[in-house]
Write a structure and sequence with these properties.
CATH topology of the largest domain: Aminopeptidase
Strand content: 25-35%
Distance between the termini: 52 Å
Low-confidence stretches: 336-349
Largest sheet: 7 strands, mixed
Number of helices: 10
Order of helices and strands: EHHEEEHEHEEEEHHHEEEHEHEEH
Mean pLDDT: 90
Structural class: alpha+beta
Strand order of the largest sheet: 1-2-3-4-5-7-6
Number of strands: 15
Radius of gyration: 24 Å
CATH architecture of the largest domain: 3-Layer(aba) Sandwich
Shape: elongated
Helix content: 25-40%
């Protein structure tokens, strides 16, 4: 028999309902690990309860549980999820968690939670891709990697950015091992580049695309399906401030194509996925790459030593916010930022530098 499960915004009137479910569920589990202090638990609950983060789980119009979710620029945290004892074992928690993950998939954020080490709910979280990443006292910290929506094909005036494919390996092997491409990449890139480097890397690279961890586009000229470069986009992992990368055939430099591709990918991140920000990087010495970021409205936030293929250097980190991007778009600046063909601004911006998590080529 079908049933209806839906979530509605919690209110102050739900405080007692939520508290009673919390205490009844937590007491037997907590007592297996440590002494139960009723007043301490009530005080802790009161301190953590934020009604604007709470939703009530209703099954066929009857309240059957509740959850509390907080969201920051970096992550979505499931703080609480409780189902009434009389409704447990019906798969309600499973459906709620599945819906929560689906609703927030496009946000491009990690999902995290903490669970008592003896809580059977841990098995439910593991089924949905959460994994233990640490522990604090009697709890495990669990995280679920971002799973992105399917990769789209993006078009600009002169380019088609299509999903990277296994057939692109020969073109990568031909184009990538050039000094103009690799000199500002992270020193972890093998140099000289192996003769089978592209083919060896392609399988694990495409795995990231299949798992929805990253967007990987082949840069092609309109009218030709041949790969002439690559541009990637990936969500913030909560730690590494690096979210976009590209490289381009040096024969195409000086035409504004990198800015054109970067604008298309940035527009997708901010206008379609609604990501709140992008962290970007380049070597200080690569002024052309920095100029692309400046034209997009990014602000430099840090400099630090970094090892490149070309040797030791200094890396710039930039922050580009959705608000800044949309503001420039409204002012007519964002989409008109491609440099004039032959200008110095785009002449050496054939690579977006270090890509410490970019997985080049």
């Amino acid at each position: 028999m079908s049933r209806s499960i839906h979530l509605r915004q919690g209110s102050a009137d739900h405080y007692r309902f939520a508290l009673e479910l919390y205490l009844s569920a937590m007491r037997p589990l907590t007592e297996q690990l440590m002494p139960w202090d009723e007043q301490k638990q009530r005080d802790s609950f009161a301190a953590q309860w934020k009604v604007d983060e709470v939703q009530i789980v209703a099954v066929d119009g009857v309240d059957a549980g509740w959850l509390q979710v907080s969201e920051t620029a970096a992550e979505i945290r499931l703080l609480q999820l409780f189902i009434a004892p009389s409704r447990q074992g019906e798969g309600i928690g499973t459906e709620v968690l599945r819906g929560l993950i689906a609703a927030r998939r496009a946000a491009g954020k990690l999902m995290a939670l903490a669970v008592l080490k003896n809580n059977p709910a841990r098995r439910l979280y593991e089924r949905f891709g959460f994994a233990v990443t640490g522990e604090a006292g009697v709890k495990f910290e669990m995280r679920r990697p971002v799973q992105l929506p399917p990769i789209p094909t993006l078009e600009t005036e002169r380019l088609v950015l299509r999903p990277l494919a296994a057939r692109d390996a020969p073109a990568i092997q031909r184009l990538f091992p050039q000094w103009e491409v690799v000199r500002w990449l992270s020193a972890y890139i093998s140099w000289p580049y192996p003769a089978d480097g592209a083919a060896t890397d392609m399988a694990k690279t495409l795995d990231k695309l299949e798992r929805g961890e990253k967007y990987l586009w082949a840069i092609t000229l309109k009218g030709s399906d041949e790969l002439r470069g690559r541009i990637d986009l990936w969500p913030f992992d909560g730690q590494t401030r690096d979210m976009r990368g590209f490289w381009l055939d040096p024969e195409l430099q000086g035409r504004g194509l990198i800015t054109e591709a970067a604008n298309a990918v940035t527009a997708y991140a901010f206008e379609e996925l609604k990501w709140p920000f992008l962290y970007l990087n380049n070597a200080v010495a690569n002024r052309a790459s920095a100029r692309v970021k400046e034209k997009q409205g990014a602000i430099e936030i840090a400099r630090e030593p970094f090892d490149y293929v070309s040797g030791k250097g200094v890396r710039q980190t930039w922050l580009l916010t959705r608000e800044a991007w949309l503001g420039r778009l409204a002012a007519g600046d964002a989409t008109s930022s491609a440099p004039r063909p032959g200008s110095s601004e785009d002449r050496s911006a054939v690579v977006d530098d270090d890509h410490s998590v970019g997985g080049w080529p």
